[in-house]
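re the bet — no i am not wrong, look at it urself. input seq straight from the record:
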Amino acid sequence: MPLTALPSEHIPAATPATYALAVLMCFDAARLPSRVDGDGNLSSLFGQDRSRWDRQLIAEGQAFLDLAATGTQTTVYHLEAAIASAHSTASHAGGTDWDRIVELSDMLMTIRPSAIVELNRAVAIAQLDGPERGLEAMCAIRDQDRLKSYPLYFAALGELESQCGRHVTASGHFQEAARFARNPMERRFFEQRINELRRHSAE
C-alpha cells in the first residue's frame, strides 16, 4: 500500500493534518525523477526538466490538498503543503506564484519560526523583487548561526551574488557550500558552479 494512501485507508488517521502530510509526500515523490540529469548530476529546482515530473502524483497531491482544507486548524503541514503545491503546479520557475510563497512563509514563521524558513522566504523574495532584495532578506535572517554549516545557504548566496554580476564573491560562497556538502553528488554540483563562475570571471 502506498504511504500516501494511509490517511484515507485508516479512518483514525484521516485528519486534515495527515492529508497535508500526504500532499508533501506526493509532491516530493513527483519531482524525484528530475532531480538528477541524464549524466547523473544534481539539478536545482530552477534547472529541472519539469516534463519529467509525475503528473499523476501531482494530481493526487492536489486531491489530498483539497481534503486537508476541510478542517479548521492551520498546521505547519498545511502551510508546507501549500508551498509545495505552488512549486509543483507551476509549468516553469518564472510561472511560480512567488508572492503566495512569501505570504505562506510569513504565516509559517508565526507558527514555527526557523532560519530555514527565512532562507526559503529570501529566495522567493529574490524571484519577486530581484537578487539584491533577496540578499537583503538573507542578511536579515535572525538566527544565521544555524545556517553556518548548511550548504544550501551558501549556495543561495552564491546564486544571488552571481545574478548581481559579482562572480568572484559568488564563487567564494560556492566554495563554502562545497566544503559543507552532504554527499558527493551535492559537492560535484557546487564544484561545477565554481568552475562556471571562474570562466565568467576570466572573460
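see?? The first helix runs from residue 6 to 9. told u. also The chain has ten helices and no strands. so pay up
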